[in-house]
Amino acid sequence: MKLLEDLFMVTPRTSRGFTLIEVMIAVFIVTVGVVLAAPSFSEAIQRRQLSAGAEEISALLTYAQSEAVKRNEAITVSWYTPGEHSEQWCIGIIEGDTPCDCRKTAPGDANYCAVDGVPYRLQQTDFVDINFEFMHMNPPVGSFAFDPVRGIMTNVSSTEVLDGDWLFYLHSNEGSGATRAYELEIWASITGRVSICADTYRKSIIGGYPEC
Fold first, then answer.
1. What secondary structure letter does DSSP report for 98?
2. How many helices and strands (H and E) does the chain possess?
3. What is the sign of the dihedral through the CA atoms of 151, 155, 156 and 162?
C-alpha cells in the first residue's frame, strides 16, 4: 500500500525565473543582432528608393511616348532643377508640343503639367525626404516632345539630351560628404527608347540593371 501511494504521489514542481545574468546575456545578443542588421536594412532602403525613382521616371517617359502615338498628338516632357543636388527638381508631361512648367503645383496654373486634366508630375518628395541628395539632370532645364507618328524625340531644347550621355542621374545619400554607394542613370535616345543602367564606377551595387 505504501508503495502505491509513493507511485501516485504528485510532487509539486518548483518554477524558477531568469537570473539577472541570463537576462543581460539575452539583451546583449539582441543588441548585437540589431547593430549588425542595421546597415543591411539601411542599404536595402536606399536601393529600393533608387530603383523606385528610376523605374517611375522611366515609366513616365515611356507613357508619354505611347500616348503620343496612341492619341496621334505630340506629348512633351519637360524638367527643371535650379542647380546641382537641389531638392527642388521636377519632371512633368503635357499634351501638345509646348512644354509645361513642372514647378507649377496647382491645376489651375498656366502651363500646369497634365494630360487630359490628369496631373503628371514627379518631384523629390515622391521618393525621398526633401533634404536628401538624390537627382542630377543633364541639362538642368530642358524638354523634348514625342512625335505622334513614330514616337521619336522632336523639339529637343538642348543638344545635351542627345549627346550619348545620361539624361537623369539618381544616387543614394549616406550623409554630408559621404561616398554615394548606389547610383542609377536614365538614358533616352532619339528613337524614344528609355533605359536604366548602373554606373560602371559602382557596378556591383544594384542588381538587375546593366552596366552603363
1. S
2. 2, 11
3. positive
For residue 62 the three cell numbers come to 515611356
Predicted TM-score (pTM) of the model is 0.78
**Residue 86 and residue 59: Cα distance in Å, rounded?**
23
Give the number of other CB atoms < 10 A from CB of residue 64: 25
pLDDT at 18: 61
Helical H runs in 72-171? none
Helix intervals (H) in the chain: 2-7, 20-71
Cell of 198: 548602373
**Distance between CA atoms of 121 and 127, rounded to whole angstroms?**
13
Q: How many CB atoms lie within 10 A of CB 98?
A: 13
Q: Are 46 and 181 in contact (CB under 8 A)?
A: yes
Contact 141, 81 (CB under 8 A): yes
Quickly tell me which residue has 528609355 as its cell: 194
pLDDT of residue 174: 60
Whether the CA torsion 173, 178, 181, 183 is positive or negative: it is: positive
Q: What is the mean pLDDT of each run of 10 residues along the chain (212 residues)?
A: 47 57 62 48 80 95 96 96 88 96 91 94 92 89 94 89 86 62 90 89 75 86
Beta bridge partners of 204: none
Q: Which residue has the cell 536595402?
A: 44
